[in-house]
Amino acid sequence: MNKTMQKNELVFSAEMPLKMESCRVWRTYTGGRLLEDWRCGHGEDGHFPEDWIGSTVRAHNIGRENIAEGYTMVAASFCGTEYRASLKEIVSGNPAAFLGESHYKKYGDQTGLLTKLLDSSLRLPIQAHPAKDAARRLFHSEYGKTEAWYVLGTRKLNGVAPYVLLGFKEGITKEDWFNVYKNQDIPQMLSMLHRINVERGDLFFVKSGVPHAIGEGCFLAEIQEPSDLVFRMEKTTPTGGALTDEVCTLGIGTEKMMEQFDYNAYSYEENLKNYKRIPELIEKNEKHTVELLIGKKVTPCFSLYRIDLDATTVSYTPKGFFTVLVDDGHGKLCCRMGETVLNKGETYFVPAGVRNISWESDSRLRLLICCPPNS
């Protein structure tokens, strides 16, 4: 074990939650103001509209290949000294302890999970992502990009109600989709997808291959496989930059890219039934609620829970490691090694070694719990 790993084992314990720093990532679109508000700060829209939570993977941005961005950092105090290290570095030093023995045996030192905070002030480009088998075959990646969206907040911009575009309307074919890409007929392209207005608390499951775009005014938590592979239908970025076929198709060519889309087409009602999820109640009383938002019945790629407390204590804990987003309020995470104070806008990586967990609040506390594959 090298000196850096030895230091990390002393400073960053696998038996206590690790508070994660904000990890803002540059994108071609703009946004971020609601994200700053959520983190209890004050900011403006700009080209850093995303915050990557629990990330051990690198972001890929055209023209910024020399910048290593996307890795979540963790800070801790030890013997009066402040230390910082990437979550990737910490986990790699002792993956069995931080991720759990069973996860480590199957996935090695890879978490298999990425959560993003995403706040858009412009409509994102129409896109889709490769499935796991296609990602392996075409890009030598163990992960595709199946994802889920939990709406944390919204705003109306230029009189437009917040919305997402998701899934093909009835009657759309692969030939239709190829033609609008070739002609770059953006209005026609937009008309081929279902437009769904959204509000706080809405939940959507977006399987790999399904065409989609997040509209302006949406602030989401996006839980996903840890991949940044994106097929783009539009050859112009939201802020006017030009993209080549090579960039849009990730180098596999138009014909192969078209094969990666899911051409199942539905009515509006069928589309909502397929992609908008209804939380599954796990337990509830007058003081707390525990809900499963995304579970194994929906996807093996990740799980998502919501816990609401109102001046009470709850002992519900997923197995293995997980990440926590404090959506609202304040309280504590208590475990056998001590207590961690939780405040709105904070995020934590909870190693598999943190056990006997309970959640406490003397007022209101709302948590999102993001769990890895097959958890």
Q: Specify the helix fraction band.
A: 10-25%
Largest sheet: 8 strands, antiparallel
* Count of the domains: 2
Shape label: globular
**Nearest-integer average pLDDT:** 94
- State Rg: 21 Å
Strand content: 25-35%
Annotation, overall tally of beta strands: 22
CA-CA gap between termini: 29 Å
CATH homologous superfamily heading of the largest domain: Jelly Rolls
**At CATH's second level, what is the architecture of the largest domain?**
Sandwich
Uncertain segments: none
- CATH third-level topology of the largest domain: Jelly Rolls
Category from helices, strands and their pairing? alpha+beta
CATH classification class of the largest domain? Mainly Beta
- How many helical stretches? 11
Can you characterise this structure?
The chain has helices at residues 3-11, 33-38, 87-93, 95-99, 101-107, 132-139, 174-183, 186-191, 245-248, 254-259, 268-275, and strands at 18-19, 24-25, 50-53, 73-78, 81-86, 114-119, 127-128, 147-154, 163-169, 193-197, 203-206, 212-214, 218-224, 231-232, 265-266, 280-284, 288-294, 303-314, 322-335, 338-343, 347-350, 358-371. By secondary structure, it is α+β, with helices and mostly antiparallel strands. The protein folds into two domains: 3-275, Jelly Rolls; 280-371, Jelly Rolls, CATH 2.60.120.10. The strands form five sheets. Strands 1, 16, 17, 18, 19, 20, 21 and 22 form an eight-stranded antiparallel sheet that branches. Strands 2-3-6-13-8-11 form a six-stranded antiparallel sheet. Strands 9, 10, 12 and 15 form a four-stranded mixed sheet that branches. A hairpin with a 2-residue loop joins strand 19 and strand 20. The mean pLDDT is 94.
